Amino acid sequence: MPNINYFSEDVDFSLQHEEKISQWLEDIAASHEYQVETINYIFCSDDYLLDINKTYLEHDYYTDIITFDNSSSHHLIESDIFISIDRVTDNAKEMGVLFEEELHRVLVHGLLHLVGFDDKGDDHKILMRQKEDACLSLLKI
């Protein structure tokens, strides 16, 4: 069974280059001394993710990603990561980047949370963006 899985809920979406992206994500985890037990990436709509945000986090706003850390032991990753394809599409347009680039950024953003990076506060946001950029530079598709 693969360690990283990709699913779609209420959107017609399939990830291109799954194997290369999975290897890239596993390599990033390993570089931070983490092993991926299982990560389930679930691609969904804004409304689907808004419902999750309200139900589980008591937040009433749209977001591009929600990461649930289900790990039971340190340095072993088990997670469900929900990504709104609607938000990724809109954010890519706003930032003037390709959809795929923004999607890859969001994919690695969730993983970076799981290996200990935070984006609460300005300094942490800057560091997170730098880590995302460094990780993106390693992805060869």
From TrEMBL:
Pfam families: YbeY. It comes from the Bacteria. Gene3D superfamilies: Metalloproteases ('zincins'), catalytic domain. PROSITE patterns: UPF0054. InterPro entries: MetalPrtase_cat_dom_sf_prd (IPR023091), YbeY (IPR002036), YbeY_CS (IPR020549). Its EC number is 3.1.-.-. Single strand-specific metallo-endoribonuclease involved in late-stage 70S ribosome quality control and in maturation of the 3' terminus of the 16S rRNA. PANTHER family: ENDORIBONUCLEASE YBEY, CHLOROPLASTIC (PTHR46986:SF1). This is Endoribonuclease YbeY. The lineage of its organism: Bacteria, Pseudomonadati, Bacteroidota, Cytophagia, Cytophagales. The gene is ybeY.
